[in-house]
Amino acid sequence: MKLRFTKMHGAGNDFVVLDATRTPMSLTPEQLRRVADRRFGVGCDQVLVIEGSTTPGVDFGYRIFNADGSEVEQCGNGSRCFVRYVVDKGLTDKHTVRVQTVNKILELRLREDGRVTVDMGAPVFDLPQVPFDPKGVTPRRENGFALWPLALGDGITAEVAVLSMGNPHAVQRVDDVDHAPVGLVGPLVEHHERFPRRVNAGFMQVLSRSEVKLRVFERGSGETLACGTGACAAVVAGIRLGWLDDSVEVHTRGGDLRIEWAGLVPGGPGLEASVHMTGPAQTVFEGEIEL
Ligand SMILES: N[C@@H](CCC[C@H](N)C(=O)O)C(=O)O
């Protein structure tokens, strides 16, 4: 089978984008891993499949697969590439599109300066929904928000804020992110037994109340140059913990993202404000691969 693809990236988080708007497409986990393989395939952090939609008020469907072939719920940098793709390919003439992922509808806006702003929806703090198992541990709280201790073996420990942006995140604060042991601690957090569906592990250095540096060891893909939902999760956690203001520049190894969150809305869980993410989305090349 020959597969036409577009290679894209958002702040260095790279994607193979597949158009399934006309013909349904279903790749096996093995085929997805082959496409994502940097030596034997095209190479990417995630494969994005763009589908049509019959739901009123929704323009497209959007499926996301990690490099290990697992299907996931959300991809922030991918959603920015998504809107760039559908506009550039003439699949829509709208510059604001609504897309259905596995568990959310996102609104994406291609701006005049070429960057994309995404309404990522509200963060979720309900632990079973993340999902995270808190049984038998007491968190330390800062500004009322929980920091959970994790024993990672061999005397290694971490203290993480836990939340979902539609996908699960564990965010820890570090003093110097460039020298943080992301390659060692990241996989231990990703596979920790308290996260039954694994987790994306974020490492955040706070530079000021409006600027952070971030590295993320992504579930199913390893460390990437940027993680959009990871940036949203880190900033939301930083705001809840009292470290950050409501608009933050996130410096990743692949570029900068602006994250804005108005915080908790009175009225209880589920009514939190949406997180807005703005950043780049670029096409690198197009091609065809024989699977
Ligand atoms: N790179 C993404 C996140 C992709 C999914 C993630 N690895 C997961 O398994 O949840 C982003 O930009 O958000």
From TrEMBL:
Q: Where is this site: Could be important to modulate the pK values of the two catalytic cysteine residues?
A: 169, 218
Annotated substrate binding sites: 13, 46, 66, 76-77, 167, 200, 218-219, 228-229
Cellular component, GO annotation: cytosol
- Where are the catalytic residues? 75 (proton donor), 75, 227 (proton acceptor)
Q: Which UniProt keywords apply?
A: Amino-acid biosynthesis, Cytoplasm, Isomerase, Lysine biosynthesis
Give me the reactions it catalyses. Answer: (2S,6S)-2,6-diaminopimelate = meso-2,6-diaminopimelate
Amino-acid biosynthesis among keywords: yes
Instruction: Please give the family membership noted in the entry.
Output: Belongs to the diaminopimelate epimerase family.
* Record protein name field: Diaminopimelate epimerase
Instruction: Please name the source species.
Output: Roseateles aquatilis
